[in-house]
Amino acid sequence: MNNLACAFTGHRPSRFSFGYNEDDERCIKIKTVMTEQINTLISNGVTEFCSGMALGVDQWAAEIVLEIKKSQPNLRLIAVRPCETQADRWSAYQRERHYDTLAQCDVVMTLQTKYTYSCISARNRYLVDHTKYLLAIYDGSSNGGTAYTVRYARQQGRQVISVNPETLAVI
User: Fold this and answer.
1) Is pLDDT above 90 for 75?
2) What's the topology of domain 5-163?
3) Alpha carbon distance 163, 23 (integer Å)
């Protein structure tokens, strides 16, 4: 990974008002703002994107990058999985989508074999430590993995682009 790389973080779908309904207008708007922000990063020289491959924001970001990559093949998508068993408890549809996306990534990194209490935090720190930018779909709450990752990125001097999932305000 390089200095001009961007990682993603955000809440799981269950945290959003629309849940897992990606056809909901609110979800479509979040994805539109994510696409705009990713395109802005690309125009500023970012060519590498790193996804933790979790449900929701991570998955959407990876899919957006893959779509843009069709017309800009110089882009690289790197999957950074916390463990091999990341998708084991997901629905069959979610697992299939996950593995289909992984198959299209330029690099797939898996940080450890089995799930442990700390593997998600380790993955999030890895993403921040190896990128310059963090695009966060973040509601401003003070607890949870997204809040931890945003705080850690700021402590490490990363440039955090935060999108409020309700208002779509970009900070």
Assistant:
1) yes
2) Rossmann fold (3.40.50)
3) 19
Q: Give the global pTM.
A: 0.95
Write down the pLDDT at residue 2.
53
Residue (of 138, 144, 147, 145) closest to 168 by Cα position = 138
Closest by Cα among 71, 73, 53 to 61: 53
Q: How far apart are CA 67 and CA 168, in angstroms?
A: 22
Q: 138: buried, middle or exposed (CB in 10 Å: 19+, 13-18, 0-12)?
A: buried
Phi, psi of 100 (to 5 degrees): -65, -40
More confident residue, 48 or 171: 48
Report CA dihedral (98, 49, 161, 167) to the nearest 10 degrees. -30
Residue 45 and residue 159 in contact, taking contact as beta carbons nearer than 8 Å? no
**Average pLDDT of the residues in 8-21:** 92
Residue 21's CB is within 10 A of a number of other CB atoms, namely 12
Distance separating alpha carbons of residues 151 and 160, to the nearest angstrom? 9
Band the pLDDT of 97: cuts 50, 70, 90. very high
pLDDT higher than threshold 60 for residue 1: no
